[in-house]
Known about the structure:
Elements: E1 3-16, E2 19-32, E3 36-40, H1 47-54, E4 62-66, E5 72-75, H2 87-97, H3 103-115, H4 131-143, E6 149-153, H5 161-177, E7 181-186, H6 189-195, E8 198-202, E9 209-214, H7 222-225, H8 229-242
Parallel strand pairs: 3-7, 3-8, 5-6, 6-7
Antiparallel strand pairs: 1-2, 1-4, 8-9
Helix pairs in contact: 2-3, 2-4, 4-5, 6-8
Amino acid sequence: MKEVLQFENVSMHYHSKQGETVALQDVDFSVSDGEFVAIIGPSGCGKTTLLSLAAGLLTPTKGTVKTSGVSFGYMLQKDELFPWRTIEKNIFLPLEIKRTNTPEQRERALSLAEKYGLKQFLKNYPSSLSGGMRQRAALIRTLAVNPDVLLLDEPFSALDYQTRLSVCDDVYKIIRNEKKTALLITHDISEAISVADKIFVLSRRPARVISEHTLHFDETEPLKRRENKEFSRWFEILWKELNA
């Protein structure tokens, strides 16, 4: 498969009055077209920095980030829907920012919203929706500009556990149905195992890739994967690597 994102010997240093902080050190990994890749690591190890580099929001201190000319959509930890805009207007926001707010593009965005259960909520304001529905709206907003790769920054972390399981399953199905490539960062081992084709494990800061795993499950749905006997085996492997 074609590689759509490559990190080659990437390091990232931050400078402040207090001195230098090394967030990433000699990071190497790649994401291929159509893959769902998860990157797990301890809190504060530099996972969000990694996504910012992938999105082109930061330039690495050392090394190269190659993106093969693909476009990116960024889904944040919180839905960040504007409370004064309806769900419909929130979904249109990326089109306005990119100046592609044409009738054709709006129609495409609305068709996604209707396809994935938001039709009856389009005229509602975010405050009237549950956390799960708000996160679904945030995903449709991200998909509105038809990105090639979705960057997911712990998108379920603000939800309670039960909602988190349901929304994770929901988001996974939408990404697969739309045939998108996805890169998820998380510190939740179970979450990574439930969705990923491939998992990279990061060390503590300065983060480096300490292992790579390709997962093979017959089940394609996250909730079904959690019931597979292989799930606990993978959890033990990854937990030991994270806590070595």
